[in-house]
Amino acid sequence: FILDLCEDNSKNLWIGTMVGGISKIDLSTDPFFWKQPVRNPVNTYVNTIRAAVMDKNGNLWLGSKGGKIYCYDKEKVLCRTIPDDLSLSGRKLMDNINVYCLIFDDSDNLWVATKGKGLFALKDILDTPVQDMEIVHFDVHLSRMLDEVFSIIQDDHGQFWIGSHISGVGLLRDPFTNPTFESFSKEKYNLASDQI
Hints:
Blueprint: E1 2-7, E2 12-17, E3 22-26, E4 32-35, E5 49-54, E6 60-64, E7 69-72, E8 78-82, E9 87-88, E10 91-92, E11 99-104, E12 110-114, E13 119-123, E14 134-138, E15 149-154, E16 160-164, E17 169-173, E18 180-184, H1 186-189
Antiparallel strand pairs: 1-2, 2-3, 3-4, 5-6, 6-7, 7-8, 9-10, 11-12, 12-13, 13-14, 15-16, 16-17, 17-18
């Protein structure tokens, strides 16, 4: 199964797959690249890539169902892994997460949308070691919708639109200063579905 597509600045199409890892198609010359984050004869959740995004430096970031986030440099060498033992207030944040979407915002913060663990912003991730990184967690305390986030996009006003598996679309404003959240559901706004 194909779960996500991402095109880089060199016209490569990156394909995140169900259990087969990540594949690359060079749209200009047609060779094919295939990579499993964890070499294993048995396909595991670690190799289920649901999210792929390029950063401003041309690095490829992958989010796996197994709860890890991998970063590959321009030569496609693994250069960073966001471990599953990051904690916030003594709680393991990335323990058993299921990454569904990754985006970089206008300030180069990496946003991680998950099923069951909420939404995370890893601040200034491109210039900060993992152990020093500030992590902001948005969860059901702000909105029930944030329990299962399947997609996220930043608009031209710096606001974040969120697609939920259970509650339609949401709008997150001022996430780092005074977060507010507004929901747009099928029932109230005549959406086609609440599963976005």
